[in-house]
Specification:
alpha/beta; six-stranded parallel sheet; about 25% strand; globular; binds ribose-5-phosphate
Length: about 290
């Protein structure tokens, strides 16, 4: 087994290579003046099982193309199997038809990746795990939630209330609660399918004077966390933190969240940002050792 570290996941790829001891396949990547990507493997991979690590956070389209080119290059050069590790899987939120005339984007992405030569996929906290059952190759979801919860526990936040900003994230906070050993709950969130506007319904929890950690899979614009934090403030929470696996943090999302009274945003290196304080390398390395 050899690893190819994609240009979008350099640090995580290096950490994973170190932990697993996998041989790295050097790759040349270039971007032409017109924006097109060039990829060339510098050593043979004949007969190898090749692992490609490439996240697909923004700019997701060019990162998906880079991944497809690496997979194709591996297969053309004799790789016997290609496993893609895509920590943040782009387009996973468009996993069904919400409005007539739409596409199921994640299915199109999966078929493109299969056409490029990918035989197997490992991802982390995909938006809805069931989407993976429709992929044209075996696809596995790993969860980084207990690692995020452990990060807070180590910092003295044991017994903190774990809050899901919507019912869909309830399984996430159940997982966090097992580590934090406190209570958990969820809010009801609605998103306007035309404007993208989020509204979160107020519910009553006993969080007065308590530390609360809002857990979500993705923080994108920050709208969801801002709405949840506002409710928690009204309910008298002492301190509010935000944790997510994929800190996309588009534009001034982090500032908006902090301005809403959240102490800190913590994410993983699925998307390398300055808030990426929890590394996925141990989780991914353990999985690779079992392949
Ligand atoms: C959607 O349901 C996801 O789980 C996240 O809650 C959502 O992507 C967060 O987006 P934003 O930060 O833009 O509110």
């Amino acid at each position: 087994m050899k690893i190819i570290i994609g240009p979008a996941s350099k640090e995580l790829g290096e950490k994973t290579a170190k932990l697993t001891g996998l041989e790295k396949v050097p790759v040349t990547h270039k971007t032409f003046p017109d924006g097109e990507t060039y990829t060339r493997l510098e050593v043979p991979v004949q007969g190898d099982h090749v692992i490609i690590m490439q996240t697909t956070s923004p700019p997701q389209d060019s990162r998906l193309m880079q991944l497809a080119f690496i997979a194709d290059a591996a297969k053309r050069n004799g790789a016997k199997k290609v496993t893609a590790i895509i920590p943040y899987l782009a387009y996973a939120r468009q996993d069904k038809i919400f409005l007539q005339g739409e596409t199921i984007s994640i299915q199109t992405v999966a078929h493109m990746l299969a056409a490029a030569g990918i035989d197997q996929l490992i991802t982390i906290n995909v938006h809805q795990e069931k989407v993976l059952t429709q992929f044209p190759f075996p696809a596995k979801n790993l969860s980084a939630i207990s690692m995020l919860a452990e990060h807070f526990k180590q910092r003295g936040l044991e017994k903190a209330f774990a809050l899901a900003p919507d019912k869909g994230a309830m399984h996430i906070v159940e997982e966090a609660r097992k580590v934090l050993d406190g209570e958990c709950g969820y809010l009801e969130k609605q998103r306007d399918r035309y404007t993208g506007q989020v509204s979160v319904e107020k519910k009553t929890f006993d969080v007065k004077g308590k530390a609360v950690i809002i857990f979500d899979d993705i923080i994108s614009t920050g709208g969801t966390i801002v709405s949840a934090a506002k409710i928690l403030r009204e309910l008298g929470a002492a301190k509010v933190y935000a944790a997510c696996v994929h800190p996309l943090l588009i534009g001034d999302a982090e500032k908006r969240i902090l301005d809403a009274g959240v102490e800190e945003v913590v994410g993983t290196d699925s998307v390398p940002r300055h808030v990426s304080k929890v590394s996925l390398a141990p989780l991914i390395s353990k999985e690779l050792k079992e392949l």
